[in-house]
# Entry
Amino acid sequence: MEKKFIGAGLLSGLIAGIVSFVFARFYLEPVVAKAVDYEGERSEAEETLAHAAGGHSHGDGGEVFTRAMQENLGAGVGNVVFALCMGAFFAVAFTVLWSYLGNRYPATDARAVAAVLGAIGFVAVFGVPFFAYPANPPAVGDDDTIGDRTGAFLTITIASVVLAVAAVVLALWLRPRIGGLVSAVVGGAAYLVGVGITIALLPSFHEVPEPVRNDAGQIVFPGFPADVVGDFRVYTIVNQVILWTVLTVVFALILGAMSRSKNSTARAVGATHG
# Structure
């Protein structure tokens, strides 16, 4: 049964990755293109300013991959691989959780467990890390702090997942004592307190490019467009909502099909021996 769950998770992840890529290709990639164009134009303005001041600039050596390859093959592979990983982790988490709930509470609907797990996964893997460090398009962020930003993001992501697991364990432990609803509220509150403390201890980064100014303080090139940042973040959220929704729904549908197949087999065996 565990292998079937893993297979269901991988299939669900594959479908979710394809669907989320289609959305990203038509909505996210045009915003990324605007950010890339801004970055190129800003570099030209800075080079012109440096040349006028008697300095010199260094080329970036050109693109290793074309934009067409990045927004199609690169983005497609990235979306699918990420979704496959999430599908595998989802299946493992479901297997562990169902081995506990299925034995102790046989009347529990496996599809409801998958739905709750999908909501927890979305919040723990994407929601909280995004709240702490919202996604930014290319050209936003200082190259000198990329290591610190990456480390902080990985820290809050790992902490969020670990705290979510601890919250679920706490809720399941409290369920026989104080009831399912109250134990869920307590577990959720404990999770929020934990991630709140973690976020407060981590550094913050505000690195949206300001306007380029000359020595006289005059603006020679505008700062990064706020609407591009806003659109990128909104579409990123929608993209992740689509990914986790499709992953969860497909996984639940497969569980339903597996359950019906198991029941049909059991009835057939019963009729044979009847």
